[in-house]
Amino acid sequence: MNDFEAMERVEPITIKAASQATATVVKASLEDKLQQLQPGGLPYEVAPAAPGADPDEVLRQLFNFFLFGKVPQAAGPSVAETGAVPALLHQYRDLARIRHDYPFCLHGTEAAKAVTTLSQIIDGLVAGVKDTGDAGERLKQHIYRIEPEIRALADQDRAAGLLGLWDRAARQLLAKSQLSKAKKELLRDNLATARQTLPDREMIACAADTPQRLLTGLALRHWRERCAGWRVELDTLIQQLTDILSTDFNNSPASRNPDHLRESTATGDAIDFKTLSSILATSHLEHQLPERRSQRIRAVLDALLRVKPLFMLDPAAPETIANAPFAINCLFDNCNDAIAEYDQRLRLLTDFFKAVAITRLELENRYKEETYDDYFNTFDVSYLSAQDLALCPPVLLNLRCSDLGQKEGAALLDILAADLPVKVLIQVDEIYVRKVRAGQSGIAINWPARLASLAMSMTRSYVLQSPVSRLAALHQGFLDGLAYNGPALFSVYVGNDQNRASLPRFFDAGSAQEARVFPVLTFNPGNGPTLIERLDIGNNNQLDRDWPTDTFRYRAADNAEKSLDLKFTPAGFLLNDKRFSDQFWCVPQACLHENMLPLPGYLDLDGNAAGDKIPYIRAIDTEGAIHRVIMTRQVVAMVRECAAFWRHLQELGGINNSYTLQQVAAAKTRLDAEQQQALAAIEEKYRLQLDQDVGRLTETIVGRIAQQLLQAGATPGSILERPLPAAIPALAPAAPAAEAAPAPKPAAKTAADEDDEGPAASLDDPYIDTPLCTSCNDCTKVNSLIFGYDGNKQAFIKDATAGPYKDLVRAAEICPVKIIHPGKPKNPNEAGLDDLLKRAAPFM
Amino acid sequence: MTIKEKTSLFGLNTQCVLKVDEDYKTLEDYQGRVSRWCPGCGDNGILTAAQRLCRDEQLPPEKCVFVSGIGCAARFPHYMNTYGFHGLHGRALPTAQGVKIRRPDLHVFVNMGDGDCCSIGTAHWIHAIRSNMKLVAMMHDNNIYGLTKNQASPTTPVGRKTNTTPRGAWLKALNPLTVTLGITNVSFVAQVVEWLPELLYDVIRQAFHHNGFAFIRILQRCPHFTPDVFASLLSDPKKLLMLEHADGLKLSDTMAKLYQTREQHDPSNMNRAREIAGTDDLVPIGILYRDENVPRYDQITKPKQKPTWEQREALLNKAFDRFGINTDGSAAAGNI
Predict the structure, then answer these.
(1) From the CA of B35, how many Å to the nearest CA of chain A?
(2) Among partner residues A14, A137, A536, which is closest to B19 by beta-carbon distance?
(3) pLDDT, tens digit, for every residue of B173-201?
(4) Rounded to two decimals, what is the model's pTM?
């Protein structure tokens, strides 16, 4: 393949501006995207090497590795040295070029709409460009151009503001641009223009702490929405209590004090407050509140004021968060603290509801001390209804896998088993770990990675399991979990920077999901009593299959372009983990053996058939060469375990449910049998009928033949001329198909529609039917100040007053398509106007 | 639980910004020298349509080639700020095919007059259609040899007086549409007039996107030598037969009001296309025929398996050995 053909294959998709529409991103088919994303072209198979070693010896080496993990001396480069990644992931090496959900920002107060991705911000900017000409199209193109730069920078700098990222990306873009000076200036100006409408928000990249930031941001917003109804009511209650106390004070002797009178008026020393006080002292005082009542009211007012900041939280105003009695978005890092915090919140909540109850009684003047004092003295959490308890702000607990020792793990299970509204975020950074048992090193599942399944079995808590790459699933899952009135477990796989080989975190996390190692699931007991209502695994790809399949295109050793359907298995996920690099061997060309077969095929074989086979997966190095990578039996065992786990999940989720399949098979067998019986009965019935008809016909025909033969002068053919009995009905000819009615033409626009398009221009002004212009240059040559070309090189009236009326008339006369209309002359004193008007008349 | 429709791996949908060029090209970026065609010449409109196409498709100028022969239309490459080849009379098509074979990544356009294409270049025209390489061939048909000042061309109407037919052209004009539609492997044939810029652009754009050889006959006025040859078409819109279809032309409401003679014509219908092409009383405008499935020359001739470097080396060695001498003076094996 020569360079030019290679170039044709990787021709990039560019933004194209439609002629009169806004610029659109070209929607590439998946196949095109796969092709376009191949860095430097399609991956290629290396030509097979000449056979070297004895095949039996090669097989022995392969089995040595498969069984014992021993690599021969001339093993070739390791997986890490080649930088090999699973074949289906090769095209995703350059993440910045691909539009995905990261980075994103949190904004606004509505939890459901709080997440906006960079792509959405860019799309919003582009949609806001009103100019449909070249300038507008260029601006849109420049806006799209900066997006991958910002994305790349956000990946490096996790806590950057959008404006800062934009500025750095713009500088970077200008520095490496090959444009001319003038075009660079345009690029600079356009980026500056677009920047003006950008909101300044903190962008969150795909990082280990992303789930925490998302959860805390959503928790604040969710709480704000949840207590929205209470905000107004609380203000009202506080105001009313304050009024009561204020009125009571005004009825007290203290309110007649000269100092108080001076403070409460704005007259300065104009009034003699001493005298006023003495006058007022003689006036009648209204009855004051009893002391106990007054104290009670003060106490409940204090209680309400203490709680009030909690209901006034505003994500956009950090000072409101700092003033709250406790931080809604605080993440605790151990179960005991979380439980203690919950107890404290519950106490505050109890005080709050107690205060509210007392307040309502007091406002209605129904509080009777002999009735209610004892009641409220013993008021505790048991007095609260389920609805009241639901108002308790949830406690957020953040744990890492490494935190989950025996004690902490047990405490966590207690939380999940109880009804405490503690929302637990588990950051899973390792799904598989090395374990040594009986001197043998193996691969074991890290049990916190299966915490979601454990929590589901408890049926009391909301459960979300998702990799960090699935932002939409995280967003919705967090919201549902926060809304759930009980414990929630959010198990999020974030990966580990130290373990990851070459793929970025987004794809490492995503590949955990695709390989069924960490599939997305939600379990919401609040949705209903049945599993079908509670469990949802619908966010996983190709649910009905063991492994998702995707098309892999490559160039074979004979240079032919080929494609394969490859399955993405957990072996591919594990290949990207440096800790297990010794479990894989990139087999050199000289060691390839016919007993090697792809892993999914190997898994389908039974024990005997698989005995002499070696499973492998395809991986691609940084040069694009395809390698066959074999693995140890521990990896195969891990893959089988994962398949079993996925099938278990499928069954729970209603996919390939074995009970259902069994019932369906039994029903099908029964129905088949019934159908066969019915068919047999019908056949038997018609066979009998047919036999009878055949017998009768035979008799008739034979009789006639005999009759004819016996009669003298029988002519040939006369027998055959007799019509046959109408026992067999003749088939009626099929009626000719009716001609399809022609499709109705769409109604043409009427004159009324045209009138609705706005007021027509005055016919006294000159005008040109610009869309019909053929760009012949005739009018511009007559007067280039009057006539100009627009962005599509079609003529329009630039300035009707820039020349004499005779130029307008001349241009109208010579225009080959007669689209220039000179209108009426502006200057009544122009020479030869009568003649000009006559000449202009046909063009009016 | 609802099973969501299949998505690609990692939830990535198929709309991706893969590579965006920061260099946005305007019409000016595609304009070469100032045109020296006569005022009112229809070539100007065709030039504008081509430049608009390049701008709208954001074609890199260095990836575009305009190839022409000799004639007024053949000035085209000079007025485009792209690569161009102003070649010999009648030889635009073989030149363009050569460019395309060697550089399949380039966008190749061909500009020919009616004489260039239908007279001296006829043989190339026929076989270019057969080869079906991905080119856009525009025939600027003004019914005359204009550059050489008023000689009859194959499409000059019968009876028209020219320098070479002072008593009027004897022969009935050649019909390029019927000729093209009769050639094996034809895949795209269209006809349009240059004084309807909206339709002209639409047809050229569809020709550009066609997966094969796209032939467009553009009726073009010559204000100097044949100013009246299309006068009746200009004055009477009913003489233009608009070929509408979902796969062909889509008229705007304004055009539909002006041009009442319309027909729903499916471009895949060859029989009807030939009938329309052969009509004398109406001038069809639009796409007469289109077939995206006709194999292209590069597809037919592309080897299923390209030789590897080792195989090529072996072939070369074998060829050299026919004449080679070993170092000891003996003839190489395979010597003839």
Answers:
(1) 9
(2) A14
(3) 999 999 999 999 999 999 999 999 999 99
(4) 0.75
